[in-house]
Amino acid sequence: MYLLKVVAASIFISCLAFAHPTTEFLAPRAVSTLDDVTIFTPPSTYSIPRTLYARTLLLETDGDETDVLLATWENYSPEPPYFPIYQSTDGGSAWTEISRVTDQVNGWGLRYQPFLYELPSQFGGFPAGTILCAGNSIPADLSATQIDLYVSTDKGLTWSFLSHIASGGVAEPVNGDTPVWEPFLMLFGDEMIVYYSDQRDPDHGQKLVHQTSTDLLTWETPVDDVEYDVFDDRPGMTTVALLPNGSYIMTYEFFGAPEASFAVYYRISDDPTTFDSVPGQVLRATDGTIPTSSPYIVWSPVGGTNGVLAVSANSDSAVFLNQCLGAPNAWTRVATPESASYSRNLRALPDGILLITGAGVLSGTDNSVTTTSIDLSSVTLASCD
Ligand SMILES: *[C@@H]1O[C@H](CO)[C@@H](O)[C@H](O)[C@H]1NC(C)=O
Asked: Which terminus of the chain has a lower count of CB atoms within 10 Å, N or C?
C-alpha cells in the first residue's frame, strides 16, 4: 500500500510538472496502515489452539532498512514444537517463513512464550543488530519449564543456543506448582535484563522477577519485581517500555487485584531493576474501562515531547493510549481493527504507526496470526492537565 501511494503521487506530480514546468511539488507524507493482514493460517494437523502469543520485531540497526519485520508465535505443530520466524520486508503487508528456532539442547521443543529482541548496541561480544530469541522449552508431557536463550547473527536466518536462563517445574498455572513463564528481554546499560513470571517461591502462588547478565551466558540470581503478601495473588506477564524522561514503565496482569480479576496494573521506576520498590496502580481508561489479562506496553515518539504510550490487553480489541507519561487520569481507549488476542503484541513503527499483532485466544479453535496497524498521529487523546 505504501508503494501504491508513492507511485500515484509521482504520476500526479509529473502530470502537473508537464503543464507547469517551473512548479515544484513536495511529495505528501506517505503514511499507510495495514488492514487485517494474515501472517499465518495453521493447518489442521496443528493441535488446538494452533497458534497463540504473537511477537514481532522491527530491525532498526541497519540505517536504510526501515521496513524489515520479524514475527513469531506459539506454534502448536506436530511434536516437537518450534518458534517459526516469519519475515516481512515491506513493513508488514507480506510475510514469508525464513527460519525456525528449534530446541537444540533439551529434546523437548520450544513450546511457549517466544520473545524477540534486537541488540541496539554491541553487547556480550555480539555486534549491534544481533537478534535474540528467548522462550519456554517444555516437554510434550508439560513436566518441566525451561526459559532458554538463542541468538541469530544473520538477521534471523540461522539460530544457535546461547544459555539456560531459568528452570522450573510442571507447566501448569496452578498455585503450588513451580513453573517459570513469559520472558521479556531489555538491555539496560551494560546489563541484559530478562523479566519473567516465577512460581518457584513457596510464599507466592506467582510473582514477577528478573535476572541480569553481562555476557548472555551466565545469569545473576533472580530479583523480585512484583510480589504481593497474599499467596494466591498472581501478578504475571511483565512488559517494559522506556519513557522519554528516562524512567521505565512496566505493565503486568494482577490476579488478585481489587478492581477486577487480572486487572492490568503498571509501575513507573527510574531504575528498571527496582520495580519492587515503587507502587503499582490500576490502568483505568477515561471511559471507566479496566483492561484485563496479558498486557503489552510500548512507547512511540509520535506527537509531542511525551510521545504516546500504548497498552494492549486480552479483554479488548481497543488499545489504551496515554500522551502524559502514564498519568493515571489520561488513558484513552481507542478502537482498532485488530481483534482481541491472548498476549497480543504491540510494536511502534516509524511515522507514528502502531503495529498490533495477534495469534488468537486461549482454547481458540480457529486461531491464526494476523496483524493490523493504526496511525497514532490521527487519534485524539486525553490531555495532560
Ligand atoms: C518521568 O515521568 C513519570 C510520570 O510523570 C514520573 O513518575 C517520573 O518520576 C519521571 N522520571 C524522571 C526521571 O523525571
From this structure: C
CA 198 to chain centre: 19
- Give the ligand 1 atom nearest the CA of 270: 13
Identify the domain containing residue 169 by its residue range: 23-382
What is the per-residue pLDDT across 127-181, written as a single tens digit (0 to 9) for each? 999 999 999 999 999 999 999 999 999 999 999 999 999 999 999 999 999 999 9
CA of 216 to the centre of ligand 1 (A): 30
CA–centroid distance, 258 to ligand 1, in Å, is 26
Measured between alpha carbons, how far is 170 from 166 in angstroms, rounded to an integer? 13
* Domain of residue 219, CATH code: 2.120.10.10
Is residue 18 domain-resident? no
The candidate with the shortest Cα–Cα distance to 289, out of 322, 267, 260, is 260
Does the global pTM surpass 0.85? yes
Q: Which residue has its alpha carbon closest to ligand 1 atom 14?
A: 245
If you take atom 5 of ligand 1, which residue's CA is the nearest one? 325
Report CA Rg, the chain.
21
Give the containing element (helix H, strand E) for 17: helix 2-19
270 ligand 1 Cβ < 6 A: yes
Q: Identify whether 16 is part of a domain.
A: no
Instruction: Output the CA–CA distances (angstroms, integers) from residue 165 to 139, 153, 213, 250, in the order listed.
Output: 17, 20, 10, 21
Q: For residue 357, what is its C-alpha cell? A: 499483532
Residue 255 lies in a domain: yes
